[in-house]
Amino acid sequence: MSKKQKLLISSRLENIKLIEKLVDEICDVHNIKEEMYGNILVALTEVVNNAISHGNKLDPEKNVEIFFEATDNKLFFTIEDQGDGFDYLHLPNPTDIKNIEKPTGRGIYLMQHLASKVIFENKGNKVIIEFEF
Q1: Which residues of 56-94 are buried (b: 16+ CB within 10 A; e: fewer)?
Q2: Cross-sheet strand order for the sheet of 63-70
Q3: What is the pTM of this model?
Q4: CA angle 33, 112, 92 (to 5 degrees)
């Protein structure tokens, strides 16, 4: 059985707290274990923060759409911003010695290691994150 939800937020950093509420509700309904909860929360917070900050450039007139769908053993999140996208195929490795001291550049790396699958579409301004449980 599949359950779907949609959340639309304006590009304000304070709206990230709505993501925590969404993840709390989803994990309660689907009896997600605490370890998976942490992975979902961190990955989703990262992608929404990127959408607000980098995609929509903190423009409160632009929105971020978050779609959620659950199946029997998977959770899918689709996050889409109204930005121009980015070159997701050529990202610097944050674990490389020349990047290790940089204060940014770890979000996508984190997402890819916390989720079962991360897919970029539409020039990179649409991200699909899958969690298997």
Answers
A1: beeeeebbbebbbebeeeebbbbbbbbbeebeeeeeeee
A2: 3-10, 63-70, 74-80, 126-132, 117-121
A3: 0.91
A4: 150
Domains observed in the chain: 3-132 (3.30.565.10)
Cα–Cα distance between 4 and 117 in angstroms, integer?
Answer: 19
Amino acid identity, position 33: K
The tens place of each residue's pLDDT in the chain, 133 residues long, gives: 467 899 999 999 999 999 999 999 999 999 999 989 999 999 999 999 999 999 999 999 999 999 999 998 999 999 999 999 998 888 778 777 877 777 666 788 899 999 999 999 999 999 999 999 8
CA dihedral 102, 105, 109, 111 (to 10 degrees): 130
